[in-house]
Every structure is written in C-alpha cells, then in structure tokens.
TrEMBL record, chains A, B:
Belongs to the PurS family. Keywords: ATP-binding, Cytoplasm, Ligase, Nucleotide-binding, Purine biosynthesis. GO terms for cellular component: cytoplasm. This is Phosphoribosylformylglycinamidine synthase subunit PurS. It comes from Gandjariella thermophila. It is found in: Cytoplasm. Its EC number is 6.3.5.3.
Amino acid sequence: MARVVVDVMPKPEILDPQGQAVAKALPRLGFEGVTSVRQGKRFELEVDDAVDDATLAKIAETFLANPVIEDWVVRRVEP
Amino acid sequence: MARVVVDVMPKPEILDPQGQAVAKALPRLGFEGVTSVRQGKRFELEVDDAVDDATLAKIAETFLANPVIEDWVVRRVEP
C-alpha cells in the first residue's frame, strides 16, 4: 500500500476568486502582510503497490485536475 | 517575501463525499487499485517577512480551516 498526494492549483494566469476573497478579507480582519492567496485542492490517495507512476499520472490528469485551468503535481509520500 | 503552504484535510472520522465519489468512480473507469481518496484544500500564500509563525497559525485556524471538521498543516516553503 502506498500513499500518494496530488496537489492541484489554478494556473498562474487563471483568476482565483476564492483565494482573492481570502486575501482581501485578511486586512479587514486585522491581519496585514499577506500579499497573495491562491486556493487549490489536495488529494490523498491510498493505492496498491501494483499501481505504477504512469497510471497515477493518468488518474491525476483525467479525474483530479482540469488541465485547461489547473497545474498539478503527483508525488508518493512515506506512510 | 516568504511563501507559505497550508494543507487542509477533512479529519479522518469525517465523511468525505467528494473523495468517496472519486474513489468509487475510478474502478468503473478502468483504474483498479486505488483504495482510498480524500479531498482537501491547499492554500499558497505570499507573506511579508515580518509575518511570524504565530500569525500564520492564527490565519490558518481562523480563515483557512474549519477546526471542527478539518486538520491543517502550515509550512514555509522555499520560493
């Protein structure tokens, strides 16, 4: 059994209304100094050892990220 | 300027319908061997160097995560 993390973030050129909302709210709430907030998704998968990197890449690209508007990183982590 | 990543995941005892939906769909779509999928959020912040760890912890707990149902990790990353 292996643990895999897939981080999915909006591409830099894509507007990120959720992140912007957080960034704009912080000064109003007394927290200065945060210049940018981007919000994305994090997936944690448990996969059989038989699942290879190519399969993981395909799963991430097809089902976890939207390649048009998002960048993503797949990595295996220690259990 | 420092980069900070905040990973927010549903607590283990909390149902995660989004993750379960992905996990259940994968075998149907031809991908076997994924036994669990959990979906959370990833925030990437850019903050002034003057922002200390205590402030970051407060921001994460108050605005980025829901402490009742989510666990979170704050970490500074290399730019």
